[in-house]
Design brief:
Length: 224
């Protein structure tokens, strides 16, 4: 396996300082992008949706749990599936304590189209505590673009409320969700990165095709 160049501490510090300049530029660019995002207009959600959650039947306002803002991860889980999405599962694995979001008046939940019982069985297997709601029987997934002719997909929506009026402020999917995963961000700090063949890495670096190495967290030992 190829290995990074070995240099003196002085040369390493010089290379690190040069990279830091670029990292600070990227940080300022992300701050500026977030400032633009905070100024996006919103669209009112007037349609009634019914969800099945931990406390029974709920509407979209209930999902806020009394808070001002709501983040919904649209977990790709179709009714009757026997192959839950490994990417959505890994994303959820990266969600731990929600108290920090709650302290900023923000709630985080998962929503999927599968019936509540199927979600609960998988949630128990994975050991998750994140609130998970079923949109089974409603138009929620279709109306928000997560159920398409080709099948289910994933994404993340942000809502804000003014009293009982609900507004959608943001949506992202694909790489927009990818960048939120803590494990990916940590791997991006390592010499070998995510070790996927789309990455611009030196010759000889270990790489595989994207997605092929992903597993449910209790399946990695089985794959080794």
């Amino acid at each position: 396996m190829a290995f990074p160049p070995v240099v003196s501490p002085t040369d390493w510090q010089a290379a690190r300082d040069a990279l830091l300049v670029k990292e600070k530029e990227a940080t300022r660019a992300l701050d500026a992008l977030a400032a633009v995002r905070r100024r996006l207009p919103v669209v009112e959600i007037a349609k009634d949706y019914v969800f099945d959650g931990p406390d029974g039947s709920s509407d979209l306002l209930d999902l806020f749990d009394g808070r001002r803002q709501l983040i919904v991860y649209h977990f790709m889980f179709s009714p009757g599936t026997d192959d839950p999405c490994s990417g959505c599962s890994a994303f959820t694995d990266n969600i731990a304590e929600l108290a920090h979001l709650h302290s900023r008046d923000t709630t985080f939940v998962l929503v999927s189209r599968a019936p509540r019982g199927e979600l609960e069985d998988f949630r128990t297997r994975m050991g998750w505590t994140v609130p998970w709601f079923s949109s089974y029987g409603s138009d929620f997934n279709e109306d928000f673009g997560l159920t398409r002719p080709a099948g289910e997909t994933f994404g993340l929506s942000v809502f804000v409320r003014d009293g009982e009026r609900i507004f959608r402020s943001y949506f992202t999917d694909r790489r927009g969700v990818d960048r939120l995963r803590g494990d990916f961000n940590l791997l991006d700090l390592t010499p070998y990165g995510r070790q996927e063949d789309w990455e611009d890495s030196p010759e000889g670096w270990p790489q595989t095709r994207p997605y092929t190495w992903w597993r449910l967290h209790d399946e990695y030992d089985q794959a080794s």
